[in-house]
Specification:
The protein is mainly alpha-helical and 267 residues long. It has one domain (2-110, 121-263). It is built from eight helices and no strands. It has helices at 2-22, 26-44, 50-75, 81-105, 122-158, 166-190, 195-216, 225-250. Helix 1 (2-22) packs antiparallel against helix 4 (81-105), helix 3 (50-75) runs antiparallel to helix 4 (81-105) and helix 3 (50-75) packs across helix 7 (195-216). It is globular, with a radius of gyration of 18 Å.
């Protein structure tokens, strides 16, 4: 019951906040319901409570759904700088409001007690020094593979736009891969349950928050409908696979135990 309530109420809030810019329609509502569903899954996949959980959800949603999208939009000159900064700040505000609401509706706010997250062990730090870059590089590989697959469908749209050199593009996507890893770190640190559960949550978070939901929104003056549909399919598949890769690299095989950082040992 809490799950359905969280999805419906948070989806309604996101629709109200998003519709002024994109219009009230069933497509807008669908986009917001998909986002609310992923956020609700994330809340129920961790044993954390209170404000630590709010910040965990906000970091994931704000980082995937707004920050990393605007990094790429600026890089490809899809949005003017002033517009991108304005939209990013507005998006982060929406992400924070949705995070507070989804945690409250999940019965996790206020917290009865706030669990302590222990400091990172030397073993964990050593593991992340190579696992995080490898995870980020897997994003680069999937990005280019998906880009090659979708290129015939978007070639005409990008034909007149200045494109970066391959080296610059690789560096930028590596940066975005590292951002993706960083913003899901609080969730990985606090997750509970089996490894497959983290794989589903991360896969859906990257694909829905980072591509499908924002690209579904109508009244987009910068990307035509056919381009948005092509990119939604492209990003939906590649980002879901990226979520699986992040899980394999950063989440241990054994059952996680709430917010302890020690659960993130070598898989």
């Amino acid at each position: 019951m809490k799950f359905a309530t969280g999805v419906l109420v948070t989806g309604a809030l996101l629709t109200v906040l998003t519709a002024p810019a994109h219009g009230f329609s069933w497509i807008t509502a669908l986009s917001c319901l998909l986002t609310a569903g992923v956020l609700t899954l994330a809340v129920h996949a961790t044993e954390t409570r209170g404000w630590p959980l709010v910040w965990t959800v906000f970091t994931m949603y704000g980082g995937i759904g707004f920050l990393n999208i605007h990094i790429e939009a600026l890089f490809f000159q899809i949005l003017p700088l002033a517009t991108s900064v304005r939209d990013l700040l507005m998006g982060l505000t929406i992400a924070f409001a949705a995070s507070v609401l989804i945690v409250f509706l999940g019965g996790r706010l206020p917290a009865e007690s706030t669990p302590t997250v222990r400091g990172l062990s030397p073993r964990l730090i050593q593991g992340w020094t190579w696992r995080a870059p490898v995870a980020a590089f897997s994003y680069v590989v999937l990005y280019f593979a998906a880009g090659i697959a979708v290129f015939p469908f978007v070639q005409e749209f990008y034909a007149g736009k200045p494109l970066p050199t391959p080296g610059t593009l690789i560096a930028m996507q590596m940066l975005r891969g590292l951002v993706y890893v960083a913003v899901v770190f609080p969730f990985v640190q606090r997750m509970s349950g089996q490894r497959w559960r983290a794989a589903w949550v991360l896969g859906l978070a990257f694909s829905v928050l980072g591509g499908i939901a924002p690209l579904l929104l109508p009244n987009n003056e910068y990307l035509p409908v056919n381009i948005r549909v092509a990119h939604a399919v492209e990003i939906g598949i590649s980002n879901f696979l990226f979520g699986l890769a992040v899980t394999m690299l950063l989440v241990p095989r054994e059952r996680a135990h709430g917010p302890r950082s020690e659960v993130m040992v070598h898989a």
